[in-house]
């Protein structure tokens, strides 16, 4: 019964009661008023219950509506996400990997597989119906739909296959890991199709691979005079198709604690290189570029041109990236026969014979000679500087092949390192709104127990294993005479314990704080809160400290900077990188003392310099990607 009806009935009964008592003459006037007040109290009590019930009902309806709105929002987001590049890319790779499986199981021929891959990678075609529920379809169902949609069309982008020994986050030892992942993601964002082939190390972080599966097919590769079997695993990492090769008879090759540093490294990586080329041929892949890296896969150069180029790869070209010219791998020529190469034809001065130790072959030299293009990774060195000073005995070879050499800077992941979106920061900031940087600085000072003065210059120092401790100590002690604060942090637990411990013994100052925690949040806050970041070098392919500092509005100052020193690394008129030219004109020749003077005496000029630096793009998507795209284009036209 509604509350309004109950209230009316109650009032009527009360009035009738009053009337009856009055008519009978038995009730006194005081009793009438008493009854009236009780009735009124009951009415008020019931009305309060009614209001509470209405309030609860409204609250329930409101919560229900919020839930409905949230469901609708999630549905809209789901609908909006359909067809996004990353989603399409993951679906695309599911189909491509299924095609590889079809070839290895002899379900389709290599030629048809190549045509189907072109269909999938043609960015102009819509294959949403094929992509939908790919994993739930059988191979026969998927093949039928692919054949139904098949139509040849020219691809706009390149098909690039990296054959390498590292890839972040699966296995990371040096700069190669972040480079392969960063460059591959940047290339795919620009419309190219990229895949990566790796050894299946026992230490791989397989949880990072989406849709990991073993292809149930026989895969063989030639090594040491015989054919040997491999297991093939496929999956997707960051939208990039990844293939893992696992030797069966040589399982110990990659079932070890470390990635590098064994006496049989040549045998291990030569086996993997040959197996990777065998896999490409058996799958009927016809990539535009096979991208190889360092000496570990440089043997692919002569393997490709002497054995594989005529096995359906006539349109494929080879690009070699060198991250460290100091590591070249010298071996006895007879070892080349392990992977099917002819030692007598390759042990020559114009091919693999080492320039100094002529009785040995140089594997990295072979990669240079047999590649169509060579990219030297260096953020600050010119091509001439690399050839004439830092080639570690390869200068005659690099001089002969200098026309196919290019220099590229490294990049950094601007999706993880962006102060305008960084979730680790107490407040975000950008060039248009720099207030957040002051908030981050105050938060950093508070976190480490430093005095919170906005005028105090905060200098962050990133210490790695090979830091020059004496140089850093001298720079810090000299700068501490000014109104500055230092935050010194290691890049790993080992460096924190060893390097920072020895520094702390001599740098006992309340304005110098040591961070012994290796935490992502505090690392991001150090970049965001610092006015200056002291770097070991402007070429930092592993940590990318200078690049991150620029993005976060902190001036990167090299530990060994001086007016004359940087000119030894950057020759402005001879094939240097954009990054090198920018750094040399801004922070490259500045010492800490000069920076402090300019910040104090010319604050407006300094602020403009910082804002200009923040607007520069030195991510993987920028110069690094452009250099590689130009290199791919050049070798495809050759």
Automatic annotation (TrEMBL):
It is an enzyme of class 2 (transferase). GO terms for molecular function: alpha-1,4-glucan glucosyltransferase (ADP-glucose donor) activity. The keyword Glycosyltransferase applies. GO terms for biological process: starch biosynthetic process. It catalyses: [(1->4)-alpha-D-glucosyl](n) + ADP-alpha-D-glucose = [(1->4)-alpha-D-glucosyl](n+1) + ADP + H(+). Residues 159-383 form the Starch synthase catalytic domain. Keywords: Coiled coil, Glycosyltransferase, Signal, Starch biosynthesis, Transferase. Residues 1-27 form the signal peptide. The keyword Transferase applies. Pathway: Glycan biosynthesis; starch biosynthesis. It holds the Pfam family Glyco_transf_5. Its EC number is 2.4.1.21. Residues 54-84 form a coiled coil. InterPro entries: Starch_synth_cat_dom. Transmembrane segments: none annotated. This is starch synthase. It comes from Rosa chinensis.
